[in-house]
Request: fold
Amino acid sequence: MSLKPEQEEKRVDPRIKRTRQLLQQAFMELMREKSFEAITVQDIAERATVNRVTFYAHFQDKYALLEYTIREMIRQRLRSQVPEDTPYSPENMARLILTVCEFLAEMERVCPPPHGQMGPLMEKQFKAELHEILEGWLAEKPAGGSSSERVRGHPTPEQAAMVTSWAIYGAAMQWMQQGRREPASEYVRQVLPLILGGLQYSAVLPIP
Reply:
């Protein structure tokens, strides 16, 4: 049985976590000073006060560090609004979508387009984190339903989580691309019924 990313992180030696935090902090500082393309592993190691050997003991290259950094930022933001023990509800789904919109808007201010490596990696990591949250909600057995009924006539929780994670990220990106953006909270109110409607078809969550 494989561990979830946050479970794996909890099992990491504290010294390893500390070194990764130093590398991540150094990397983020450098990102505020110059482009990702201009940053070298040597730059990161020097800023983190470690040597290159130590860097490569934790990350294959700067792209791996970028992916790790983005995943951690996204996980922390989503879990700050939707903690692990948060139950499913339309209100919590709305909070999840709103958090994605707000995070993307903040990242745009920090790293204006074009995003280069950031864009595809951010999309990948957002979908992965959303999938994890959604699959936890979708795996809950609904009242009056059964696992066999799901398999015969409806998408599995895995499939529903995948499709819904894409829908949430796509909706957030559509909001981002609007010429004159309406408030994120208003936009979420508009798209929420569409996303909940897709889950209603899966018949694994109670939709009012």
The CA atoms of residues 154 and 202 lie 5 Å apart. The chain has ten helices and no strands. Residues 90-110 form the longest helix (21 residues). Residues 89-202 form one domain.
